[in-house]
From TrEMBL:
Residues 10-67 form the Methylated-DNA-[protein]-cysteine S-methyltransferase DNA binding domain. This is Alkylated DNA nucleotide flippase Atl1. Gene3D superfamilies: Winged helix-like DNA-binding domain superfamily/Winged helix DNA-binding domain (1.10.10.10). InterPro entries: ATL_DNA_repair, MethylDNA_cys_MeTrfase_DNA-bd, MethylDNA_cys_MeTrfase_DNAb, WH-like_DNA-bd_sf. One of its GO terms (molecular function) is catalytic activity. It comes from Streptosporangium sandarakinum. Keywords: DNA damage.
């Protein structure tokens, strides 16, 4: 089901942050809420479920590194393409977590 209307200002902030997560890196729903200083994991998940299709959604994971339910296969395909550090079929949170600091492109 497509959302009606435009994303809220909060949703826009979530989506903007998700777009900035570098390839091969991930943030948890809670990481995003903490970085923004508002909302929580459930609110971020709601934003992603409504409007996340246009951003690199596979870079947003549960705190244990698992992908969004029902998207496991597609996540793994993206993660393999981006060389995301993995532990089995989940992102290796310790190695792949992005803290929001811009990466230098050398």
């Amino acid at each position: 089901m497509e959302p009606v209307g435009h994303p809220t200002p909060y949703a826009e902030r979530v989506l903007d942050l998700v777009e900035r997560i570098p390839p091969g890196m991930v943030m948890s729903y809670g990481d995003i809420a903490e970085y923004l200083g508002e909302g929580g994991p459930r609110q971020v998940g709601r934003v992603m479920s409504l409007w996340g299709g246009g951003v690199p959604w596979w870079r947003v994971v549960h705190a244990d590194g698992t992908p969004p339910p029902g998207h496991e296969r597609r996540c793994l395909e993206h993660w393999h393409r981006e060389d995301t550090p993995l532990r089995g079929s989940r992102a290796d949170i310790r190695a792949a977590r992005w803290d929001g600091t811009p990466r230098n492109r050398a």
